Amino acid sequence: MMNQDMQKVLFSEEEIAQANHNLAQQLMTDYAGKNPLFVCILKGAIVFLTDLMRQLPQSAEIDFMDVSSYNGQTSSSGQVRILKDLDVSVKGRDVVFVEDIIDTGITLKELTQLFKSRQAKSIKIVALLDKEANRQQNVHVDYVGLSCPDEFVVGYGMDYQECYRNLPYIGVLKPEVYSKAEY
């Protein structure tokens, strides 16, 4: 049923796996001998985080933040709300934000500023997808898996109204699926 809602498959399971492998290689090199804190931005990035972490042979900690700016829509509201904060301090830590997709940059810009004020030692961003066409805030994405065109994508953790997260690929949702629900 979910496959019928797709306009097209944008990135296959194989392409995603290769991107994860490449990102893991970069992270292994850059964080050799360190114990970074990977901060997963829920809920979309959880699938990406788990696949990425399984490829890292060195020690790394994880924690989670639930941050919302989409509120069930296909575009950001521009207002970032922290629904769940970290359980650990970032003071003096090397922090790596793990995001499924960087779109407007609003969320990561605010989180980066917040973590600077919390005195993180370093702050980097790893994203499976980078959608530069929608960028509203200047954020530097340190590690990018795949470049994403300006289309509404779901799958591999990304959703539309909490559906489609469990697709093993990333696809473009047919506009008629979400256009009826938006005002």
Structure description:
It is found in: Cytoplasm. Belongs to the purine/pyrimidine phosphoribosyltransferase family. Residues 12-161 form the Phosphoribosyltransferase domain. The protein is of the alpha/beta class and 183 residues long. The protein has one domain: Rossmann fold (3-Layer(aba) Sandwich), CATH 3.40.50.2020. Helix content is 23%, strand content 29%. The protein has four helices and nine strands. The model has no long low-confidence stretch (mean pLDDT 91).
> Which residues form runs of ≥5 with pLDDT under 50?
none
Gyration radius, in Å? 16 Å
| Mean pLDDT reading | 91
Binned, the helix content reads: 10-25%
Major sheet description: 6 strands, mixed
Family: Belongs to the purine/pyrimidine phosphoribosyltransferase family.
Pathway: Purine metabolism; GMP biosynthesis via salvage pathway; GMP from guanine: step 1/1; Purine metabolism; IMP biosynthesis via salvage pathway; IMP from hypoxanthine: step 1/1
GO molecular function: glycosyltransferase activity
Subcellular location: Cytoplasm
